[in-house]
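stage 2 :: seqdesign
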């Protein structure tokens, strides 16, 4: 027996000097939630909370950036009017979060928060940020992380539903470049990602055009140019099968 673990009767048990990493993380998460709840209960001005989160979102510590992005997501969900008031600052922070060079957690939380914002405002608040968000989200569709890939498909589908006239040409070009990813992930190893991809494929179908390298096999099919559109919208998984087997 280790001599350091021996104790005489009546001697108090030794106190652990460190907590397991997983437990420490849970404690940090717990106190973060408690702090947020107490702030709301004390009716601390949301403006102050917002600027605290904005400052933390630029912190050198990745964990603090992650928690800040999550906090912005909570604000977007619970107090959308406040987020709308500072939308340019919020969107700028989230776009920087999308391009975080270190933390996949920060990127993922930024994607999720943007999804909340688009859901609250029907995509009418992105302005010129639409370009940066679309470009980076498109690259995340093939990410190795299942959760991030799933969230990216959800966000890309929302972007497709919220395209304004100003960005229609731009988004159409992005969808064309994304078509292979959309087809591939219809058969994603993760069922939830495959389901999200199918929904996004349908949202993107108005921006898809028949690709020149694909040609219908029969004259009857050539006389039916709507076939591609019907398949892409109603049965994208069938369209993927036809392409994969070179039937189309």
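stage 2 :: out
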């Amino acid at each position: 027996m280790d001599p350091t673990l021996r104790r005489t009767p009546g001697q108090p048990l030794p106190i652990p000097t460190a907590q397991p990493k997983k437990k420490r993380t849970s404690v940090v998460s717990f106190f973060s939630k408690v702090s947020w709840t107490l702030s709301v209960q004390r009716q601390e001005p949301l403006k102050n909370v917002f600027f605290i989160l904005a400052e933390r979102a630029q912190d050198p510590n990745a964990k603090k950036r992650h928690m800040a992005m999550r906090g912005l997501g909570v604000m977007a969900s619970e107090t959308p009017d406040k987020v709308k008031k500072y939308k340019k600052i919020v969107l700028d922070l989230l776009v920087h979060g999308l391009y975080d060079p270190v933390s996949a957690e920060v990127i993922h939380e930024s994607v999720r928060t943007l999804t909340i914002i688009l859901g609250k405002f029907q995509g009418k608040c992105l302005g010129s940020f639409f370009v940066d968000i679309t470009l980076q989200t498109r690259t995340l569709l093939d990410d190795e992380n299942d959760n991030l890939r799933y969230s990216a498909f959800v966000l890309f589908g929302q972007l497709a539903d919220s395209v304004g006239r100003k960005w229609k040409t731009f988004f159409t070009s992005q969808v064309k470049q994304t078509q292979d990813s959309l087809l591939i992930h219809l058969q994603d190893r993760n069922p939830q990602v495959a389901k999200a991809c199918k929904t996004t494929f349908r949202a993107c179908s108005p921006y898809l055009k028949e690709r020149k390298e694909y040609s219908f096999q029969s004259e009857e099919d050539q006389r039916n140019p709507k076939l591609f559109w019907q398949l892409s919208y109603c049965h994208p998984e069938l369209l993927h099968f036809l392409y994969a087997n070179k039937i189309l």
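stage 3 :: structure notes
- The two ends are 73 Å apart (CA to CA).
- Residues 1-19, 38-43, 210-224 have pLDDT under 50 and may be disordered.
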